[in-house]
């Protein structure tokens, strides 16, 4: 039995927490499993390091930045290793490079290309607990890279896949994945199981328990993933292939994304190629366009609306000003996206209607709608954000 355990920033946020983490790891080791531990930097450290780097330059050299950022995880790796050894459990700490994690050379958001597991396997054979610094790797040329913010989750999942681990446990400071944000709806319930696809939709719709790329990779490599709380021994949420969840739930969660802004173009010339022009320019700037709606044209013009992340709105405005695409462009950042997610939506009609009725009853106007196989998203005025989540949570009886 091989278990990969990943501990996030708050779980290793103080020396006391690192000691608690060591004890948690020992429990697993004592149960007879081999353990590979992946750690994040102590909470707040990576942000601090980013600030330090940006003190000297608005666009710090990315290679130097990666050397800087990777240091946070090395601190926790070393401290946990020292603590475990002192408690009588032989442990070895490895940087991403020492652990054989090879990436491409896109610094500060590198992708893992392959993992040479021979060192880790040798240490495990020697009976050691192996601690690996998350969020980092090395290029073939020997430069340190980091994997993008939240990247320790990805390290843990990639290692689980490469080592063919039986289980990958992601420890955070919440009990698992909830039907919605418990700060918005007190009656939110922790889910015991959720499918990779639902988790991906919830995460991209604003629920931030796991980094999105790590869930994608877990799905691809079929890694058995559990997210749980390092501050208690509650059961957590199992994220797995959907056939395992036999509960026949229609809707599993409601996500709220406040980082949304809407762009409306009025009087767009209605001819082929216009949408291509607009969205190509936005894509070139790496702006993540989410929902798009276009009205039926009239008198040779049409209206086009789309949403972008709020923190990319400035860049969007600049970019749109270089295009003579529309007579009027309006921007609105006082909106939110509310999404209903559930694999049951694939096979049941009428799920969307309940959402529309529920919102209508509260007088909440829907500005945009989009659907996928397992998700329904609506854009509503920001002032209704919490109300919309609560009434929908209630309508789909998610507290049960
Ligand atoms: N320390 C990194 C970050 O804050 C990676 C991680 O915690 O997953 O983004
Ligand atoms: Mg994290």
From TrEMBL:
<comment type="pathway">
    <text>Amino-acid biosynthesis; L-lysine biosynthesis via DAP pathway; (S)-tetrahydrodipicolinate from L-aspartate: step 1/4.</text>
</comment>
<dbReference type="InterPro" id="IPR045865">
    <property type="entry name" value="ACT-like_dom_sf"/>
</dbReference>
<feature type="domain" description="ACT">
    <location>
        <begin position="263"/>
        <end position="343"/>
    </location>
</feature>
<dbReference type="InterPro" id="IPR005260">
    <property type="entry name" value="Asp_kin_monofn"/>
</dbReference>
<comment type="pathway">
    <text>Amino-acid biosynthesis; L-methionine biosynthesis via de novo pathway; L-homoserine from L-aspartate: step 1/3.</text>
</comment>
<dbReference type="GO" id="GO:0004072">
    <property type="term" value="F:aspartate kinase activity"/>
</dbReference>
<feature type="binding site">
    <location>
        <begin position="6"/>
        <end position="9"/>
    </location>
    <ligand>
        <name>ATP</name>
    </ligand>
</feature>
<dbReference type="InterPro" id="IPR054352">
    <property type="entry name" value="ACT_Aspartokinase"/>
</dbReference>
<feature type="binding site">
    <location>
        <begin position="208"/>
        <end position="209"/>
    </location>
    <ligand>
        <name>ATP</name>
    </ligand>
</feature>
<dbReference type="Pfam" id="PF22468">
    <property type="entry name" value="ACT_9"/>
</dbReference>
<dbReference type="GO" id="GO:0005524">
    <property type="term" value="F:ATP binding"/>
</dbReference>
<keyword id="KW-0067">ATP-binding</keyword>
<feature type="binding site">
    <location>
        <begin position="172"/>
        <end position="173"/>
    </location>
    <ligand>
        <name>ATP</name>
    </ligand>
</feature>
<keyword id="KW-0547">Nucleotide-binding</keyword>
<keyword id="KW-0457">Lysine biosynthesis</keyword>
<dbReference type="InterPro" id="IPR001341">
    <property type="entry name" value="Asp_kinase"/>
</dbReference>
<protein>
    <recommendedName>
        <fullName>Aspartokinase</fullName>
        <ecNumber>2.7.2.4</ecNumber>
    </recommendedName>
</protein>
<dbReference type="GO" id="GO:0009089">
    <property type="term" value="P:lysine biosynthetic process via diaminopimelate"/>
</dbReference>
<dbReference type="InterPro" id="IPR001048">
    <property type="entry name" value="Asp/Glu/Uridylate_kinase"/>
</dbReference>
<feature type="binding site">
    <location>
        <position position="178"/>
    </location>
    <ligand>
        <name>ATP</name>
    </ligand>
</feature>
<keyword id="KW-0418">Kinase</keyword>
<dbReference type="Pfam" id="PF01842">
    <property type="entry name" value="ACT"/>
</dbReference>
<dbReference type="InterPro" id="IPR036393">
    <property type="entry name" value="AceGlu_kinase-like_sf"/>
</dbReference>
<dbReference type="InterPro" id="IPR002912">
    <property type="entry name" value="ACT_dom"/>
</dbReference>
<dbReference type="GO" id="GO:0009090">
    <property type="term" value="P:homoserine biosynthetic process"/>
</dbReference>
<dbReference type="InterPro" id="IPR018042">
    <property type="entry name" value="Aspartate_kinase_CS"/>
</dbReference>
<feature type="binding site">
    <location>
        <position position="183"/>
    </location>
    <ligand>
        <name>ATP</name>
    </ligand>
</feature>
<dbReference type="GO" id="GO:0005829">
    <property type="term" value="C:cytosol"/>
</dbReference>
<keyword id="KW-0808">Transferase</keyword>
<dbReference type="InterPro" id="IPR041740">
    <property type="entry name" value="AKii-LysC-BS"/>
</dbReference>
<feature type="binding site">
    <location>
        <position position="46"/>
    </location>
    <ligand>
        <name>substrate</name>
    </ligand>
</feature>
<keyword id="KW-0028">Amino-acid biosynthesis</keyword>
<feature type="binding site">
    <location>
        <position position="73"/>
    </location>
    <ligand>
        <name>substrate</name>
    </ligand>
</feature>
<comment type="similarity">
    <text>Belongs to the aspartokinase family.</text>
</comment>
<dbReference type="Pfam" id="PF00696">
    <property type="entry name" value="AA_kinase"/>
</dbReference>
